[in-house]
């Protein structure tokens, strides 16, 4: 390998470890599971509706099929999804440690609802209520810029302990 290739590889490795080192507390609700026990890998195979239309509901996980990541337990609907998660958990875990993406864009940590989701640039984002989804979708790129800028300062704050409003979790099953 040439020096340029080694420098790029070292930088990528450093960024990977830095991102993992600075992960905050994952939002966990009364279920005791990250993302309320929904299968985070399954979102990536669900059809994604256009902006302005509701997304399909998430896929409930199985409490017997779990993996640990970021200090929390994630549940999965299949062993295959669990294996995919374990191979690359940062790819599948929701952004902002499962907190509402629009809330982060506004400078705070509030719960993310697993049935109010969107994948943008291969990253999973959650929001708290249907009304918030509307605000988020008015300017997703702008809200992502705000959220990314805010996250560095609010990430060290404790995770949200609030309950997701108007949400009744069906997960995890079995």
Describe what this molecule looks like in 3D.
With 174 residues, the chain is of the alpha+beta class. The protein has one domain. It has helices at residues 3-21, 79-87, 89-92, 101-105, 130-138, 140-154; strands spanning 62-69, 72-76, 113-120, 123-127. A two-stranded antiparallel ribbon has the order 1-2. Strands 3-4 form a two-stranded antiparallel sheet. The N and C termini lie far apart (50 Å).
What integer is the average pLDDT?
Answer: 87
* Oligomeric status: single chain
Largest sheet: 2 strands, antiparallel
Helix-strand category: alpha+beta
In which range does the helix fraction lie? Answer: 25-40%
Write the element-wise H/E pattern from the N-terminal end onward. Answer: HEEHHHEEHH
Cross-sheet strand order for the largest sheet: 1-2
Low-confidence stretches: 1-22
Q: Into how many domains do the coordinates divide?
A: 1
Total number of strands: 4
How far the N terminus sits from the C terminus, by CA atoms, comes to: 50 Å
SS strand fraction? 5-15%
Rg, alpha carbons: 16 Å
Shape: globular
Number of H- or I-type helical stretches: 6
SSE topology:
Layout: H1 3-21, E1 62-69, E2 72-76, H2 79-87, H3 89-92, H4 101-105, E3 113-120, E4 123-127, H5 130-138, H6 140-154
Antiparallel strand pairs: 1-2, 3-4
Short summary of the structure?
The protein has helices spanning about 5-20, 80-85, 90, 100-105, 130-140, 140-155; strands at about 60-70, 70-75, 115-120, 125. It has about 170 residues and is of the alpha+beta class. It has one domain.
């Amino acid at each position: 390998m040439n020096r340029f290739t080694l420098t790029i590889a070292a930088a990528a490795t450093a960024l990977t470890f830095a991102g993992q080192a600075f992960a905050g507390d994952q939002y966990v609700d009364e279920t005791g599971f990250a993302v309320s026990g929904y299968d985070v890998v399954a979102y990536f195979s669900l059809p994604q509706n256009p902006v302005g239309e509701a997304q399909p509901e998430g896929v409930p996980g199985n409490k017997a099929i779990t993996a640990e990541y970021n200090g929390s337990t994630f549940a999965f609907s299949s062993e295959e999804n669990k294996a995919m998660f374990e191979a690359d958990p940062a790819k599948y875990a929701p952004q902002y440690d499962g907190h509402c993406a629009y809330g982060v864009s506004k400078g705070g940590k509030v719960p993310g609802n697993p049935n109010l989701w969107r994948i943008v640039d291969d990253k999973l984002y959650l929001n708290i209520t249907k009304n918030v989804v509307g605000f988020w979708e008015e300017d997703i790129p702008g809200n992502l810029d705000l959220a990314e800028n805010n996250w560095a300062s609010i990430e060290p704050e404790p995770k949200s302990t609030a309950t997701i409003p108007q949400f009744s979790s069906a997960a995890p099953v079995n």
